[in-house]
């Protein structure tokens, strides 16, 4: 039974299933900016892509908020990511002339929100579960 469960899980996770994500850049199309109307059929039509499979990396959805100091511009980029920053849902990349606030997520069209809530909820639930089960 357990073997079957893990085999199924592996089949689902490792299959040729291609995640789909919003792909756009507010510098080219202001509809890509926040607040983002993820439910809008027009935006889905225009921006949703199936991420190209990559032999080395598993694709995920990514949202990058780029704060450019030179002209004070803020750009939002949504795309498929391949090289993941481990252990963080969101993180910041800083350099002399910009901040990049990057969020990564793993479900279809998830690169929408300003901050990603689901993993925090999941972490919270698993913490509660851990406390519950260690006490039982
Ligand atoms: C896989 O993704 C990495 C990182 O983006 C890229 O450097 C590499 O060329 C990709 N490989 C293929 C086969 O697309
Ligand atoms: C991510 O977390 C795991 C488990 O805590 C740890 O083993 C791993 O080294 C971490 N990876 C990075 C890149 O920090």
TrEMBL record:
It comes from Hyalella azteca. The gene is LOC108666454. Residues 1-18 form the signal peptide. Pfam families: QVR. This is Uncharacterized protein LOC108666454 isoform X1. Keywords: Glycoprotein, Signal. GO terms for biological process: regulation of synaptic transmission, cholinergic; sleep. The keyword Signal applies. PANTHER family: ATILLA, ISOFORM B-RELATED-RELATED, PROTEIN QUIVER.
């Amino acid at each position: 039974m357990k073997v079957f469960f893990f085999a199924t899980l592996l089949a689902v996770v490792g299959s040729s299933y291609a995640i789909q994500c919003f792909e756009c850049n507010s510098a080219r199309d202001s509809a890509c900016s926040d607040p983002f109307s993820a439910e809008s059929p027009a935006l889905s039509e225009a921006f949703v892509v199936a991420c190209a499979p990559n032999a080395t990396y598993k694709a995920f959805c990514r949202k990058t908020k780029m704060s450019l100091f030179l002209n004070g511009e803020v750009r939002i980029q949504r795309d498929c990511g391949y090289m993941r920053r481990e252990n963080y849902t969101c993180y910041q990349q800083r350099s002399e002339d910009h901040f990049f606030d990057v969020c990564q997520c793993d479900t279809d069209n998830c690169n929408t929100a300003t901050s990603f809530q689901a993993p925090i909820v999941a972490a919270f639930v698993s913490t509660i579960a851990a406390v519950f089960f260690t006490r039982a």
